[in-house]
Every structure is written in C-alpha cells, then in structure tokens.
Amino acid sequence: MEQKTIGFVPTMGYLHEGHTRLMEESKKYADILIVSIFVNPLQFGPNEDFDRYPRDEQRDQAIAEKHEVDYLFIPTVKEMYSGKEIVTINVKDRTDVLCGKSRPNHFDGVATVLTKLFHLTQADFAFFGLKDAQQVAIVKGLIDDFNFSVKLIAVATVREDDGLAKSSRNIYLTKNERHEAAFLSKALLEGQKLMIDGEKNPDMIIEKVKKYIVEHTNGTIDYVDLLSFPTLSTVEVIDQPIIIAIAVQFKKARLIDNIIMNTDGTVPHEVV
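Structure tokens predicted for Pantothenate synthetase (272 residues):
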C-alpha cells in the first residue's frame, strides 16, 4: 500500500486568504490536507480578546470545502483540555522579546496545543505564516527540541493590495484606521531601504521605522525591534539574517507585521 503524506494547517478559524494560502502550499508538499480550527484559550491572557475573537464555523467549513480540505478538525475546549493537566510546557527561549514580552505564557499555550495537534494529526508537514514570525521561530524550536518528525514550512505573509498583512483582527479597524494600517508595511520597507543602502546600525533603522509609523498613523507603538532570526537575539551590528518586527495598537485592534532579511536587505528564499 502506498504511504501517503499529510500536510497540516493549524488555525484559530475565521479563515482568510492567509490561511487558504497555507492550504495551497500544503498541496504542493503532501497528499492529504488536515486543517484544524481551535481558538486556544491557553494562549490568551486575562485582558485579551478570547471571548470576542471572531468565530464563524459555518463560513469556515464552506471555505475549507471550497479549497478541498480532506479533514477539518474542530475540537471543543473540553476535548483538547479534559481536566487539570499533569504536564505543562514552558518555552524558555525566544519569548521575552516582541509579542512574547507583553504576553507572558502566550507561547506556552501555543507550544502546548501544537504538541497535542502534532501528535493527533501525525503530520509530515506543518504550515505557518510568517506574519507571526516569532511563532514560527518558537515552533521551529519546539519541533527540534522534541524531535517531532513533522517538517515546518514557513510561508510568506499574505497582504492586501495596499500592503496590509491579512489578519482576522483587521475587521476591528475603523475606516480611518484601515487607511492608516497600510503604512505599517511601508514603514518596514523604509527599514529595508536603509539596509540595502548599507546601514548596519540597528538603532538607526529602528528609529527610522518608528518615525515613519508616528508620522503616518495615530496608532500607539507597542514595539519596533530588530533582532537576529530565527534566534531572536539582540544584535549590535547587522552581520547575520535579521527581522524587523512591529506591533501597533489601534483602538480595538493590535496589528503585527515584520520583514526578514539577509545582511544586504534582500529577503531570503527560506527562513527556517
């Protein structure tokens, strides 16, 4: 009997083009496509948007059917977490920067649910979008440290025509905020231009990106940072692949974006 390969796309639902791009990528690698939809309570903090996170199971099922998903897995919280856990997962590295800095235990929740999902699906390939590059870096560490047989495939961020990264949270933006949000990706391109021109000082690039965001939006900057990738360590001079990552809080939506580059400002073909 021919052994078929399994591709796995984990999501929290409210599917958009970013998710369907992952599904399309899976079909290039694997024979069978599994998509999971699970809004994981362990990765939400007490003041975050777990209860109002957008959900539309019927819509998601229609999208999955349209994209020829073989198995759509939509477990309940009780099915995923049946009681008081005996073993917990604590991510010790790559978490105290970027989103992890202001979201303690968030990536513990991500690592916990993915450990379960990797075991349940027995996938050969798992597909993650680079919009959340910190998550990609941590998943890479999880797979390596726990010797999962699954191969991580990181897929480029899917964007709107004006450059805004696709996100389920974009629906929370007002009309004016939606216009301003397009400048986030443009701010990253300003940082890229500096690197292409030969700038090696991270502080200079960070300040340029911050200035651009302040001048073009009314959002509150959570962070703008430049780190090594995928190790997410501080760099004093750019002499290795890096990520410029940003998070900006609008009234009801916190948006993240990033760009990963080689030392000369070019975007690498593969990042993990």
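The mean pLDDT is 95.
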